[in-house]
Amino acid sequence: RIMSSYFRARDALEPISREMLLERLRSESVTLLDVRPADEFVQGHLPGAINVPLAELDAALARLPREHAVIAYCRGPYCVLSYEAVAALRSKGLEAYRLEAGYPEWKAAGLPIES
Question: Locate the Rhodanese domain: which residues (predicted)?
Fold first, then answer.
């Protein structure tokens, strides 16, 4: 119950579903931001994603494009890394969203990955 209310409160961040992400990738420019540690990123990630571990996000802000949305993801729907990243990005004025699922769900759905 505590976890549920924690994540509901944090999800005023309006997550993007896998289907919505696929549509946005087809129709517009977005930046996919993988906030998992680098060793996880090299094992596999969503196509075109850039890796900026959460601890390095502030230092990387200058190189993130501001002209289109940033969609952050991590290890799954209960991974706090993407919640924290989206909150930080929005506090700096970027349009940012959290992918509802994470890399494991993307891979399990048979969608393309890179490594």
Answer: 26-115
Based on the residue annotation, tell me whether 74 is a catalytic residue of this protein.
yes
Full domain range(s) for residue 65: 2-108
In a domain, 115, yes or no: no
Is 114 within the bounds of a domain?
no
Number of folded domains that form the chain = 1
Global confidence as pTM: 0.85
d(CA 95, CA 65): 10
The single residue of 21, 30, 74, 89 carrying the catalytic annotation is 74
- For 64-83, what is each residue's pLDDT tens digit? 988 999 999 999 988 999 99
Residue pLDDT, tens place only, 9-30: 554 567 999 999 999 888 878 9
Q: What is the CATH number of the domain that holds 97?
A: 3.40.250.10
97 burial level (CB within 10 Å; 0-12, 13-18, 19+): buried
